[in-house]
Amino acid sequence: MNTIYIGVDFHARQQTICYLTIENGELQLHELKHQNKEEVRAFYAQFQGHVIVGLEASGYSPWFERLLEELGCEVWLGHATEIRRRARWRQKNDRRDAELILELMLHDEFPRLYLPPLQVAKCCACFVTARS
User: Fold this and answer.
1) For the chain, percent helix, then strand, then coil, each to nearest 5?
2) What is the pLDDT of residues 29-46, one digit of tens each?
3) Where are the alpha helices (DSSP H) in 1-132?
4) Do the Cβ atoms of 51 and 73 come closer than 8 Å?
5) Any idea what DSSP says for residue 114?
6) Closest alpha carbon to 20 in 74, 89, 101, 88
7) pTM score, whole prediction
8) Which of 6, 7, 43, 131 could form an S-S bond across to 18 if both were Cys, CB 3.0 to 4.6 Å?
9) Which residues contact residue 119 at a Cβ distance below 8 angstroms, ignoring those fewer than 6 apart?
């Protein structure tokens, strides 16, 4: 089974997505607005197999993390400062940030934060507040 890696530069109102197509290995970029949650769900539901989505940890993403887990995707949250430190360029933009996240994932250099799965987290009231 093929693993699909998806790098996401996530913001409060939109996200920039970078992934490789399995058929030809071509880098794909896509932008989604968060107003239409069903469009976001449909985009990620199109991927088959083992899907890993990487993004920087932020306070805006818990709804997105839950959506991905409902779809069976594995979610990797990364340490934002460490991700930025590994960039080869000074100027930030959404496309470059999504590409960097994907590149770090593919080269096993993604600075992943450990978070227990949401099902386990729901047992701990203090953690539910932090992730909700």
Assistant:
1) 35, 25, 35
2) 999 999 999 999 999 999
3) 37-45, 62-70, 80-85, 94-106, 118-121, 125-131
4) yes
5) P
6) 101
7) 0.84
8) 7
9) none
Residue keyed to tokens 């997505």: 17
Q: How far apart are CA 7 and CA 109, in angstroms?
A: 13
* Angle subtended at Cα 129 by Cα 124 and Cα 132, rounded to the nearest 5 degrees: 110
pLDDT at position 119 is 55
- What average pLDDT does range 80-94 have in this prediction? 87
d(CA 109, CA 101): 9
Q: Is the pLDDT of residue 15 over 60?
A: yes
Residue whose entry in the numeric block shows the structure tokens 């920039």? 16
From the list 124, 10, 116, the residue with the least C-alpha distance to 63 is: 10
